[in-house]
Amino acid sequence: MNALEVLNLVKTFDGFKAVDDISFAVPEGSVFGLIGRNGAGKTTTIRMMMNIYIPDSGEVILRGTKIGQEFKDKVGYLPEERGLYKKMKVMETLLYFAELKGKTGREVEKRANEYLERFELADRKNSKLEDLSKGNQQKVQFITTILHNPEFIILDEPFSGLDPINTDLLREIIVELKSKGKIIIFSTHLMDFAEKMCDQIAMIEKGKVILHGSLKEIKTKYAQKNVSLNYEGNISFLKNNPLVESIEDFGNSTGIRVKDSAQIQQLLKLLVENNITVNKFSANDISLHEIFIEAAGGNNKTKTGKEA
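Below the sequence we write its predicted structure tokens.
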């Protein structure tokens, strides 16, 4: 069952179509990723979902009914452009934003203190926001997003400005929120985060959805004929080999697509014959980054040694 449906959204700014007939569905109890490169139309789509922008056409349906003010009351929204009052103190800010959502009292303050402890900000709760680092301001903004216990959580580029430890903590909290039945929608251009976290995705390119559905099913479909390789040696001999359709080099690992799935074992044999030390050879394995490059027709794909 779908919690939210985005149907044929269109938005134009000064003749430029930022969002072009976008449709996707967000299932109940899922972590949903709106993914694509910067400027693809992700933030504009989210702002239409939030009724910040009015679409030129199309609509957003919440459990069978067109969204209205009641949807905003159910949502915690972390915008891409952060909006905190820099002169306010940390705890003052948290309680203020919770009150805007109708939540006050000791329970909210208790929850605020718990989140400040988890994010190692308890000793800064009386500090002004302007005195915090950008990363710590980002953590405060995230807490304001979830403190009122929203049913829907919409996060626009939530990992921006966070170090690896706090990124992991944020991921941990998102998983916890999902286990409590929250619907989480986040946009990102960072494919590795989306791959680790999402159940469902909508991949956007130039204002259009180019892939949509279960991440597991999408990966299964695109992984056919693909090999994830970790090796030592020089594989330049593969660039003009008739077995190989494309090579995507990620530095520490390489994605290789053969022209026919029956050729995967031949590829392994070829590597061994050319004295390549094979540390990892995963058939029918592909990263979301590779899928994006293929689906979006990017310029980074190497086809038999030539620029695509």
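The chain has two domains: 2-214, 224-307.
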